[in-house]
Amino acid sequence: xxxxxxxxxxxxxxxxxxxxxxxxxxxxxxxxxxxxxxxxxxxxxxxxxxxxxxxxxxxxxxxxxxxxxxxxxxxxxxxxxxxxxxxxxxxxxxxxxxxxxxxxxxxxxxxxxxxxxxxxxxxxxxxxxxxxxxxxxxxxxxxxxxxxxxxxxxxxxxxxxxxxxxxxxxxxxxxxxxxxxxxxxxxxxxxxxxxxxxxxxxxxxxxxxxxxxxxxxxxxxxxxxxxxxxxxxxxxxxxxxxxxxxxxxxxxxxxxxxxxxxxxx
Length: 265
Fold this sequence. Notes:
The chain has two domains: 8-159, NAD(P)-binding Rossmann-like Domain (Rossmann fold, 3-Layer(aba) Sandwich), CATH 3.40.50.720; 165-262, N-(1-d-carboxylethyl)-l-norvaline Dehydrogenase, domain 2, CATH 1.10.1040.20. The protein is built from nine helices and eight strands. The protein has helices at residues 16-27, 40-50, 77-81, 139-152, 161-191, 200-209, 222-225, 228-237, 242-262, and strands at residues 8-12, 31-36, 53-55, 67-70, 90-93, 109-115, 132-136, 156-158. The chain has an eight-stranded mixed β-sheet with strand order 3-2-1-4-5-6-7-8. The longest helix has 31 residues, at 161-191. It is elongated. The termini are far apart.
C-alpha cells in the first residue's frame, strides 16, 4: 500500500504569510480543513476564501489532519505550539530565523516549511518559483514535506536551521534593506517635487544585474570610483537628513573597504 501523502492541512495563523500560503495550497487542491487565528476578522476572511472551517481556540483543532502549519510570528511559535497537544502529528513552522528544535515539545514529528519571499497583503504572489526551504526531524517527514512543496514550486531545497538563519539574514540585506533605500530615495525626491519614476529604469537595470555572477563587478557610483568630490557634494546635500548622512557615509566606507580588500573591479 502506498504511503499516505499530505492532503488535509490545518493552517494556524491568518497573517500575510498564512494567507498567501493558504491560498497557494488551496489552488493546488490541498484541503485546508481549518484556519485557526486568535482574532476572527482575518481568520474568517482566509477560511472563507479557501473553504476551511474557522476556529479561534487552538484546543478545538482537529487531531486528524496530515500536517499543522504554524504560520505565526516568530515570537508566538513556542507559545501557540504548546497549546496544540498534537502528540505525534507532523507540525511545522514557517520562520526563517527560528530553529526546528522550538517544536520539540509540541510533537515528536516536526519540521520547517519556509518560503523565501516577502509577503504583503497588497499583491498576489505565485509560488511556482519561490524557493521553499524544507527541514524535518525524520527522513519520512522530509520526504512528505518535499512532495508537498514540489506541488507548489519547482524550487525546493533541504536546508538546515543554521543555514536557513544565514539565508534569512542575507534576504534582509537583499530585499528589506534595498526596499528601504528606495524609500529614502523617494523621500529625497518628494522633498524636491521630483518624480520617483525617473529612477525606475535605473532600478530595473540594477535588478537585471543581479542575474550575473560576481555582483561587485557591477558596482558603480562615487565610492567605488574613489570620487571624493562627488562624495562630499552628496554629504552636503544630506546635511538636513543626519540619519541618512550617517547611512550614506557607512555604506560608502564599506564599498571603499570592500574594493580595497578584493582588488580592482
